[in-house]
Amino acid sequence: MRTSGDPLPLTSKGVNGTDLVLDLKLSEGGFIRQGSTLNADDDTSSALTYHSYCDAMLGGEGEEKETISAEIAKLGGAEGKQTVRIAFKSKCLRTQNAWQRQLLAQQRALLDVVAGKLKAAEKTLKADEEVKEEERELLRGFRKIVRREQGAEDVQAPVEIFVVEKAQKLRAETEELCRILSYPCQSYNSFSTAMEAVAQASQSTVQRVVSMMSRNSGKSTDLLDGRPGGSLPDWRCRALCTTGRNAGNVMLETPTQIVLLGMAWLSRGLPSEWQQQGVYVVLITEAGDFEDVGRQLLASGEAEMREKLRARGICDYLIHPLSLDSLSTVISQAQERRLEEYLLLDILGRGATACVHKAKRLRDNETLALKEINMRRLRKFATEGIDRELRLLRELSWPTVVFTLDTWENEKEKLRYVVMPVLETAVACSKGSRLPVKAKVQKGKKSNILWTEWPTGMYRPSTDSRICIGAG
User: Fold this and answer.
1) What is the mean pLDDT of residues 206-231?
2) CA 321 → CA 169, 258, 445, distances in Å?
3) Which of 24-28, 194-198, 369-373 bottoms out in mean pLDDT, i.e. has the lowest?
């Protein structure tokens, strides 16, 4: 069968999987009838509603001819062209298999195209992530990103180590090193069992933190006894900080989870929950498996190998026999990775000894206020006053007191950092200025102290670091 239109492409199969459907576009208004090409001018009325059946003989040269049924229907067209659909039906298994092979070949070609697009998108995404990490390093160098440092007063976050290795000897070796370093360690020879253990440990941590927050928040209610607004709930988010009387600078930290993964599970993808929970994954192999790791990753050198491991979510690579120093280094890197980082956006205020920045917490893009205090410019008694004030602001529970989320000190640079919420609608009041609401202004006998009635809140004294809340 031959037409004056486009070639006859194989487009789809029928409902029962044994039909062959061709879509034809005929130029110059032609259409098909019983295997012949006619002009629309010869039979205009038939061209508008054409629908017919015919039989055809198919078979290659030297092969046995086969009779198949064809259903021909005119579907209409545009711009002088008409579309005709021919649906072939055959009961011959050989013919059906040939059609199925051709359809599978087309589907494979489509899958190859989609796979190529996915690889290109993955490559672009990986390049974007590398650029972001390089930008972060540059911003850290220019002090545009401030990283929280572990202070002497901070509680050391606990560490949980999970060893996933099939070889009993390697598991025992790693467990012994963890025992020497006094870190809890759980070993498994099954990846699914290890996943359940990590998930269960994470759930237990969440329940423990919520319980501690509830217990500490209950202890802080006595601070509001006998004061206006004592019956109102605390407007602060309990998930951001503790409000207990003895909280101080103690931070509620979730344990640092480290998974030491064996060579057998390198080809398996890591669970997405591990990345969300910040699980630090380290690949551990024997020295003889180094080349096998390179071949599996298609990497030619150690640097490229580590880069491809990071792309898979694996943060580091250790080779047996492990040492105490190498394991301690991995644990330190895992703990440092969990420290908060803040991107400095703008300057909210500047004074003689401090500067307040508008900052974005990179972990969740939360906008906060980051106060940077230069401790070199302060005398000893002023330093003690700042420490006392920061402790009080962490312990005090009052709906209109600007509280602190976190504090730490950079001992090398002699800088103290204070993280606080940003009050976009706050009104700054100074001594002698007119207050935006009705307030009482009273003077103490030894120093000038300014405070207001509820609900305006807290004002700083004019001469010292005391905080006063007026009862009206």
Assistant:
1) 49
2) 11, 18, 72
3) 24-28
Residue listed under structure tokens 């007119």: 434
Beta strands in 362-470 (DSSP E): 366-374, 406-410, 415-421, 458-459, 468-469
Query: Which one of 91, 126, 150 terminates a domain?
Result: 91
What does each C-alpha distance from 117 to 111, 120, 127, 141, 232 come to in angstroms? 10, 5, 15, 36, 56
Q: CA angle 329-333-334, nearest 5°?
A: 115
Structurally, the chain folds into a number of domains equal to 5
Residue 322 lies in a domain: yes
Edge to edge, the sheet with strand 316-319 lists 185-188, 159-164, 256-261, 280-285, 316-319
Going by C-beta distance under 8 Å and a sequence separation of 6 or more, which residues neighbour residue 417? 146, 148, 370, 371, 372, 373, 406, 407, 408, 409, 410
User: Is the full-model pTM beyond 0.85?
Assistant: no
Percent share of the chain, pLDDT over 70: 53
124: its two tokens: 């672009």
Determine if residue 371 is labeled as part of a ligand binding site.
yes
Q: Within this chain, do residues 45 and 137 fall inside the same structural domain, yes or no?
A: no
The strand pairing partners of 145, in sequence order, are 343
